[in-house]
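Long-time lurker. I teach an intro course on protein structure, and each term I like to show students one example going from raw sequence to a predicted 3D structure in token notation. This year I'd like something fresh instead of my usual example. Would anyone be willing to generate the tokens for the chain below so I can use it in lecture? Attribution to the forum is fine with me.
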Amino acid sequence: MQEAILYRSDRLPTAASAGGSAAPPPENINSTLRELVAENALVVFARKGCCMCHVVKLLLHGHGVNPTIVDIDEQNEADIKNDLSRILGGGVDGANSGKSGAAAVVPQFPAVFMGGELFGGLEEIMGAHISGELVPRLREARALWL
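-- Reply from a regular --
Happy to contribute to a lecture. Here you go:
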């Protein structure tokens, strides 16, 4: 089984390493999360100890998929929700992030990104599984090979 990646803000690039202030700029955090989502066919952001997150992981592993799993602690939950909502609300290129009319999308955990886009949570995964759409979507995202 694949080991989960713990979400830690100290892994993210900071302005201090570039000679700036100690707080990481939001653009760097967003770009790091975007890179994580874009570089992996399937990413699951899961709350540690959450039974619904566990069900999603088991279902995906049962299909033979090894998703990138980002386990989120309670103290980091608000930060990662804000970071993900900035990415989702601002679109891929961040064009809508400055508009006052843009509705912020707040992801619920588990948040499953498939092929670089938000697929959904437990309800969407289970619905796709029951309707038979999950396996073709996993193949399309290149998360499932057979």
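Some talking points for your students: The chain has a mean pLDDT of 75. Helices lie at 26-39, 51-62, 74-89, 122-131, 134-140.
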